[in-house]
């Protein structure tokens, strides 16, 4: 009987040890050796290559910069800008899969303009766009926004440190002043919408309207035309006033519901007190 039990233990150990070893090997291969962030990244040949030791040091930071960017937060990946197939290492840089690589300096606006159509139209007509076309050395998208570490943009991108690299800050300052009040209103409405969500209200209609208005308004940044900004700002202000009014209605409804709930609770509490008093008087 002891021999039989001993043989069962040996068989169990012979089965579990390889499984355990296999799990450790899989864990080390699939988790410890792979790049990660706050979320599990989709398998990407681009990320694997750019984080490997075979890649020049100056190019290894690209995946980390991208993972902290506004593009990453909105599911814009490597192949969306550079083409290729990020799911297949053998085809990741294949021209048959649309790989274009790094665009030339003068090609950057057209590259970004594939998605940012309205901004490209304003940029081409601007002094920046004309300077790039005429000299090949004017500012392009990367000059102000960076390449891979692109953040959500506000008018704070217009500042003396950045703008004075190429020219005086005077005209840019006038542009920022013209945009300031409208941009401030956008930020206030955005904060109000976040507060509503924190209260369990999901104002999707107002959020979509704000996003659309904000996107169209911020294309004006790229015209670098103070007169045009001033003439078109009134239209966007009206749009924002309408959104703000709808948001305020939602807040008013919430306040009414809170007051009504409090009123009902007071009635219930008062009724309970009266009923208790009557019941006590009846017993006495």
Would you list the SSEs in sequence order as H and E?
HHHHHHHHHHHHH
How much beta, percentage-wise? under 5%
Work out the radius of gyration.
30 Å
The biggest sheet amounts to:
none
What is the molecular shape?
elongated
As residue ranges, the low-confidence spans are: 1-41
- Percent helix, as a range, is 55-70%
Mean pLDDT across all amino acids: 83
- Amino- and carboxy-terminal Cα gap: 81 Å
The helix tally amounts to 13
User: Total number of β-strand segments?
Assistant: 0
Helix-and-strand structural type = mainly alpha
Kindly describe this structure.
With 284 residues, the protein is an all-alpha fold. It has a domain at 154-284. 65% of the residues lie in helices and 0% in strands. The protein is built from 13 helices and no strands. The chain has helices at residues 2-32, 45-50, 62-67, 70-73, 78-82, 108-112, 117-125, 127-135, 141-145, 160-163, 170-198, 204-218, 226-283. The longest helix is centred in the C-terminal third of the chain and has 58 residues, at 226-283. The protein starts with a helix and ends with a helix. The model is unreliable at 1-41 (pLDDT under 50).
Name the descriptors:
284 residues, disordered N terminus, mainly alpha
């Amino acid at each position: 009987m002891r021999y039989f039990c001993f043989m069962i233990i040996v068989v169990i150990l012979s089965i579990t040890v390889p499984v355990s070893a296999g799990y450790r090997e899989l864990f080390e291969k699939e988790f410890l050796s792979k790049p990660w962030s706050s979320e599990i990244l989709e398998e990407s040949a681009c990320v694997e290559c750019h984080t490997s030791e075979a890649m020049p040091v100056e190019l290894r930071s690209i995946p980390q910069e991208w993972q902290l960017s506004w593009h990453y937060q909105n599911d814009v990946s490597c192949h969306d800008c550079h083409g290729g197939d990020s799911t297949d290492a053998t085809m990741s840089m294949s021209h048959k899969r649309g790989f274009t690589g790094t665009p030339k300096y003068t090609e950057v606006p057209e590259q970004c303009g594939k998605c940012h159509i309205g901004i490209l139209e304003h940029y081409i007509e601007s002094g920046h766009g004309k300077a790039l076309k005429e000299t090949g050395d004017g500012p392009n998208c990367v000059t102000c926004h960076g390449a891979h570490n692109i953040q959500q943009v506000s008018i704070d991108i217009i500042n003396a440190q950045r703008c004075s690299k190429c020219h005086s800050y005077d005209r840019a300052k006038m542009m920022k002043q013209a945009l300031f009040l409208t941009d401030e209103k956008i930020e206030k409405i955005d904060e109000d919408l976040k507060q509503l969500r924190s209260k369990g209200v999901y104002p999707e209609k107002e959020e979509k309207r704000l996003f659309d208005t904000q996107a169209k308004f911020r294309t004006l940044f790229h015209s670098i035309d103070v007169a045009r900004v001033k003439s078109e700002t009134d239209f966007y202000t009206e749009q924002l006033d309408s959104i703000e009014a709808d948001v305020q209605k939602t807040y008013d409804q919430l306040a009414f519901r809170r007051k009504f709930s409090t009123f009902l609770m007071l009635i219930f509490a008062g009724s309970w007190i009266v009923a208790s008093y009557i019941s006590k008087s009846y017993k006495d």
